[in-house]
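May I ask for whichever protein you like with its backbone structure tokens?
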Amino acid sequence: MRFSQAPISSRTKIVICVTVLLAAFVTSLIHDRVRTPGAALTSHNYTDRPIGSYWVNGHWGGNGGVTCCWSIDGNTAKVAWILSMSKAQEDQGMKIERHEVQVHLPSRNRGDDTLHVYFLPNNRIEVMWASTVLDPLRHETEILPR
């Protein structure tokens, strides 16, 4: 027994295409609504001392690794951190230090879900949004003194 297929009309093809595009759009909207809100924090230490802990606008960033999920917005951010020390530095008489600075918060692009906090020599801080927890400036910061 053979089945004959009627040709698909142009109108049916258009309806199928519109339905597929609409489904993709609705899926994107649903994903944006149900995904975990907020931003992750991660840090990169380019100083000669360990970072004991740090905070961005009062949200704890830890002392390495990634913390999530914080509401971070506005034009500026307050970064506070504790400079710890190695055993050798402690033996040399160094003390734990607490620092705090207000920094410009760069604009956040769609998809940017991680705020990278860079601890640089002379207690300089830079922040950058990215869509990955991997260091987006890795090649640029390798030349910095530690």
